Amino acid sequence: MAEQTITGALLLGLLEGLTEFLPVSSTGHLLLAGHFMGFESTGKTFEVLIQLGAILAILSVYFARLWALAKALPNDAKARRFVLSIILAFLPAVVIGVLAYQFIKTVLFETPVLICIVLIIGGFVLMAIDRLKREPRYTDVMDFPPGMALKIGMIQCLAMIPGTSRSGATIAGALLLGSDKRSAAEFSFFLAMPTMAGAFTYDLYKNYSRLSADDFTIIAVGFVSAFVAGVFVVRGLLNFVSRHGFTVFAWWRIVVGTAGLIGLYFYP
Question: What is this protein's function per UniProt (predicted)?
């Protein structure tokens, strides 16, 4: 196995962990970076499977809260409603992800120009939403009603288009439906766990027979680096967005998308 492939997996894993929970599209960043680095994974599985590292980053940071939630389920109606809300928000991604899987992997994942354009458009949308002046109705993620959660889950399906951002779509949806910035980001964290676990499981099921020992090695490298970087982001993001909002991420999307288009013009 080429040393540069291991190095590429390490760098892309760090990029995944740093961007997965930010509204900037980790998949878009990975696909663009991989394009310019000449990094090719079997069936584009690397970009999906290393998300397991980001999932474990959430679990490690939120373990105490998740354990308390699990213990409260038998006797706490509010806890049961919250779990129902997460399940309802997760279901639309299951349906769309399975039905559109081949189109997503063979067309959308292979169109870097589209990724750049969507990054830029999403940046302006996120900036506009962040600047809306409205009084939030929900400041505690546990209070999101199931109907609102289902709507957020439907909006999350926009993230099937690389460059949109799963976290960006869910955060924007929650903000538009009445949450404050902190609870919107936190709901995105909770919804990420089943969504990313489902994507990991389904992609592994579809591509397991195609993967070699070398593929699993580079996936493992990417997974570990994604976990390490993800822990730092999860620990600091809520406090950051509570103070500063999402405008900095909107500008980042616009800059990366523009730079990507320029790079593709000279190095298609």
Answer: Catalyzes the dephosphorylation of undecaprenyl diphosphate (UPP). Confers resistance to bacitracin.
